[in-house]
Amino acid sequence: MTADAWFADLDPADPETAANRIREGSADSPADWSALAVETGFATDEDDYYDRLREATLEGGQAAVEEREGAVDQQLVHAVRAMDDCRRQANELAERVAEWGGSRFEEAGTGVEYARELSERNPETLGDRRAVSLARRVVALDEEADALGEFIEATTPEVAPNLAALAGPVLAARLLSLAGGLESLAKKPSGTVQVLGAEDALFAHLRGDAPSPKHGIIYTHDAVRGTRPEDRGSAARALAGKLAIAARIDHYSGDRRPELEAELDDRIATIQARADDAEADDDE
Amino acid sequence: MSELPVGVERRDIGGETGLATQGPPAYGEPTDEEGWRRWNPRRSKLGAMLASGMDTGLAGGETVLYLGAAAGTTVSHVADFSGPTYAVEFAPRPVRDLLDVAEERDRLFPLLKDARNPETYAHVVEPVDAIVQDVATRGQAEVALANREFLRDDGRLLMAVKARSEDVTADPEAVFDDVVGTLSEGYEILERERLEPYHTDHLGVVARPR
């Protein structure tokens, strides 16, 4: 029984191995570990045992968190969420800038574009200075969002090459963000991938108030948007299927499978050809 | 109303009377000069169970296994009035905060583990007097059954069941009956009570191993 203990044959002066044992070890059933530790001489008494356990669990927890959080897919998740936050805040502040700027300066405009114009002005009065300064923050936020976008475009193909090739880096990163990481995306059925990002609509459907959503965030993909509305459900289903496969390859094997893209293109072409057939029928 | 465990008191902090424990502040909760800190039942299901007078069987000083510790809000209070406390949480992000809470306490052991796989921490966790469970996953009753091996024969399971984790569309009361039914395979149910108004669609359960 003692052989299963995290402290079995452990040198009490070796905190690193102790932390690893906490993380990697296992046992079929629990036992009175504190008593066993004192019996086997790992600890001098109960208090000493708990002090050692405390050190090992804190150390092990720290290392495990760093490893799981530091994983590159988690960095992408943070980046894509940060990009969306920056974009949203920039737009929101830009509205305030437009309102304020319109009351102080002749030329008026809207959005981040207007904030950019204002930011290049030379403010003369105290009030001008504040409005122009705010405009500069908007521009800075917008530029940060662009920079985050570039980071995502550069990093996603390294983390999930097949998914990035199929979906494009940004959509791929969004899917990772919605799923919570590459591993959990790889474990999702394609029907779930299809409606990721359409949770409100999905739950409305499950409550019985609405039809089932045809697509979530994958709506932004050309294969879906470029298909006529009647066939978008089919296109979304086909795309989601390939994306789910791509995520699994990326997570479990990591090698590149260019044939996935060919298969998807082929399938989408077949679905989009239905529109031509329908037109031909109408002509007859 | 049943008695509170030793180390949990109703105290007046900042002009409001409510549950409190004595220990280092953990998440910006109100405190008084004697080191007591407010235990808000709206932020803690175990707090809600105590505040609504459920008989948890806790006397204070127990060894505790806490499943679903999250960022450590509730478990910080549990560690304040309990003995050795093992805190299991699966998601790395909240464990970052949990580690901070544990740093401040002598007998709180954080474990980044999945409560659905007890064999991954059975080499660390000893038999305990109480299991507190607050996991937001489907199969909450199965988690409690899988962890029953940690509970001493006279121990208590204190469980918060979240209806929406099992099925968002079903009627909560039906979900609760289901979960409690499965739970009865390994536990004798001593008390069940809805946690409204503190938590919507949650059920508090007190049980002991059979």
List keywords for this structure.
heterodimer, A: 284 residues, mainly alpha, Serum Albumin, Chain A, Domain 1, 3 domains, 14 helices, 72% helix, flat, B: 210 residues, alpha/beta, Rossmann fold, seven-stranded mixed beta sheet, three-stranded antiparallel beta sheet, 6 helices, rRNA processing (chain B), histone H2AQ104 methyltransferase activity (chain B), tRNA processing (chain B), SAM-dependent_MTases_sf (chain B), Fibrillarin_CS (chain B)
Quick recap:
With 284 residues, chain A is mostly helical.
Name the helicity range of chain B.
Answer: 10-25%
CATH C-level category of chain B: Alpha Beta
CATH architecture of chain B: 3-Layer(aba) Sandwich
Number of helices of chain A: 14
Quaternary: heterodimer
Determine the N-to-C terminus distance of chain A: 82 Å
Which CATH top level class of the largest domain in chain A fits?
Mainly Alpha
Average pLDDT confidence of chain B is 94
The strand count of chain B comes to 10
Largest protein interface, residues of each chain: A-B, 34 and 28 residues
The stretches of 5 or more residues of chain A where confidence is low (pLDDT under 50) are none
Bin the helical content of chain A: over 70%
Reported by name, the CATH topology of chain B is: Rossmann fold
Helix and strand sequence of chain B: EEEHEHEHEEHEHHEE
Name the beta content range of chain A. Answer: under 5%
Under the CATH scheme, the architecture of the largest domain in chain A is Orthogonal Bundle
GO biological process, one term (chain B): tRNA processing
EC number (chain B): 2.1.1.-
Subunit structure (chain B): Interacts with nop5. Component of box C/D small ribonucleoprotein (sRNP) particles that contain rpl7ae, FlpA and nop5, plus a guide RNA.
Protein name (chain B): Fibrillarin-like rRNA/tRNA 2'-O-methyltransferase
